[in-house]
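Reading a protein record of the kind used here takes only a little practice. To see the layout at work, look at the sequence and tokens printed below.
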Amino acid sequence: MTNQPQTVGSTTYQRIKRDIIFGVLSPGAKLKLEPLKAQYSASLSTLRETLNRLASEGFVDAPEQRGFFVTPVSAEDLVEVANLRVLLECHALELSVANGDTDWEGNLVAAHHKLHLLEQRMLEGDSSEVELWKRYDWEFHQALIQACDSRNLLELHARLYDKYLRYQMLVMTNRGTVAVEEHRAMFDAALARDASLAREHLEAHIRKGLTYTLAHMRETA
């Protein structure tokens, strides 16, 4: 969900990663270079560089002498990703609440407002902008932890968030009013500078989302 400079290589990377996250490229699918070349209007060298980069991030498997495959999914992997997200994001949130200034507060208010408006539209039955909804969700969670004052922590969190989002999109999870209320609780606690309560709400939000996603994965299977 993060933005990258728009070079040919980064554009190809963003498009393929997006298609993996949103299920256009199915888990376990073989990524054949010639069809990808036509689909993404990219050279073979750019594709190889992109797929190797995605392999290093865990979105692509590259077994020796067998080509490239979209990384498979599993309940065990989802649980691990969720646990790591709790570890990193909750820590980053506590630091951010402690360090955040007026600009941080303003960015958080704006991010929550955008997310809340779109959530309300979805509660009314409008599901036409799922990708925008998930972008606003990402921007809200990013705004919460932005003041943690650690670039490495933010980068690791962004990678984990994308992996978690991939599972959500595979089963199209939307917990409706419950998730809206969880976002509000995190928002209120963060603005009140109650780091402990904000962390409590965030961990519950992630773990409830995990339970919901796992249940839908079992139903799909």
